[in-house]
């Protein structure tokens, strides 16, 4: 079922949009389907599919009432957008200037009257080195493209795994991560430059004084100790930010068997009257 922007503008209930690094869609599909059934988000941005397009389980999502778009890659990366009772309308796959990039990391679609970009920013480790240079170059492309979207009169959302811990307040302890690409000054500077365009970081906007984590490493009992990081973000342009009603993390998903090391992060938008 296709939902046009004009139809979406008439919605009478809050809209829930989530981002979730699934860390292997084939291995975590039962977890993902359970979460979809329990939480019933309206739109979902997925990252790190680790599956070719031919292996994307579109039929499983359709059985739950979700239309889907996917930009896959065998064994690595990959992004997708799901929409409940609607079909996402593709706008772009791949960042401008990186259309020939072999790594599938970016997908844009019109969904429920909102222009949504789903992204999986490069990790960048080990640093320094070519992987970190690729991360920063990719980030620069994202900043340039985001600058063309931020002042749009239409609602725009950037959602995904940014692989950046914005500040020391967004990590349990920096001691073991000081050399990691997620905390490097260059990575953080790119993120702050992105926000400076006018984007609103939903979680930090609503919870300025609360430690919120979205990722817990598999090692050293990080989940059990709540030793987490905040690296999954939802950024709203000025046209969308006034609609922000609530935001949170479905941390219970991280406690399930065979869980991803990330938990879904979501926002809820006000119903239009």
UniProtKB/TrEMBL annotation:
Organism the protein comes from: Pseudomonas vranovensis
PROSITE patterns reported for this sequence: AP_NUCLEASE_F1_1, AP_NUCLEASE_F1_4
Q: Which family does it belong to?
A: Belongs to the DNA repair enzymes AP/ExoA family.
Q: Where is this site: Transition state stabilizer?
A: 163
Residue numbers binding Mg(2+) = 21, 48, 161, 163, 261-262
Site note Interaction with DNA substrate applies to 262
In the record, biological process GO terms are: DNA repair
A single MF term (Gene Ontology) = metal ion binding
- Tell me the protein's name: Exodeoxyribonuclease III
Q: Which InterPro entries match?
A: AP_endonuc_1 (IPR004808), AP_endonuclease_F1_BS (IPR020847), Endo/exonu/phosph_ase_sf (IPR036691), Endo/exonuclease/phosphatase (IPR005135), ExoIII-like (IPR037493)
UniProt entry tagged with the keyword Thylakoid: no
Which residue intervals define the domain Endonuclease/exonuclease/phosphatase in the entry?
A: 18-262
Record key words, sorted = Hydrolase, Magnesium, Manganese, Metal-binding
Question: Which residue ranges run through the membrane?
Answer: none
**PANTHER family referenced in this protein's UniProt entry, alphabetically:** EXODEOXYRIBONUCLEASE III (PTHR43250)
UniProt remark on cofactor binding: Probably binds two magnesium or manganese ions per subunit.
Q: Which SUPFAM superfamilies match?
A: DNase I-like
User: Does the keyword Repeat belong to this entry?
Assistant: no
Cofactor(s) named in the record: Mg(2+); Mn(2+)
Return the annotated site residues (Important for catalytic activity).
232
Active-site residues per Swiss-Prot or TrEMBL entry: 120, 161, 262
């Amino acid at each position: 079922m296709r939902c046009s922007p004009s139809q979406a503008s008439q919605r009478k209930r809050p809209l829930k949009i989530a981002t979730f690094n699934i860390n292997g869609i084939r291995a975590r599909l039962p977890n993902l389907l359970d979460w979809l059934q329990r939480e019933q988000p309206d739109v979902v941005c997925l990252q790190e599919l680790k599956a070719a397009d031919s292996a994307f389980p579109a039929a499983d999502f359709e059985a739950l009432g979700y239309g889907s778009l996917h930009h896959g890659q065998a064994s690595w990366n990959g992004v997708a957008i799901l929409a409940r009772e609607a079909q996402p309308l593709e706008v772009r796959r791949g960042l401008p200037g990186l259309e020939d990039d072999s790594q599938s990391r970016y997908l844009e679609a019109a969904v429920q009257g909102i222009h949504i970009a789903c992204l999986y920013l490069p990790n960048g480790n080990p640093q320094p080195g070519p992987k970190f240079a690729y991360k920063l170059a990719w980030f620069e492309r994202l900043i340039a493209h985001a600058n063309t979207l931020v002042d749009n009169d239409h609602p725009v959302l950037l959602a995904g795994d940014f692989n950046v811990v914005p500040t020391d307040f967004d990590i349990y302890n920096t001691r073991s991560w000081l050399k990691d690409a997620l905390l490097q000054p260059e990575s953080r500077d790119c993120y702050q430059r992105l926000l400076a365009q006018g984007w609103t970081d939903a979680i930090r906007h609503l919870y300025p004084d609360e430690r919120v984590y979205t990722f817990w490493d598999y090692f050293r009992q990080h989940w059990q100790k709540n030793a987490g990081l905040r690296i999954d973000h939802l950024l709203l342009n000025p046209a969308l930010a006034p609609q922000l009603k609530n935001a949170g993390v479905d941390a219970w998903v991280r406690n399930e068997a065979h869980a991803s090391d990330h938990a879904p992060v979501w926002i809820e938008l006000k119903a239009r009257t």
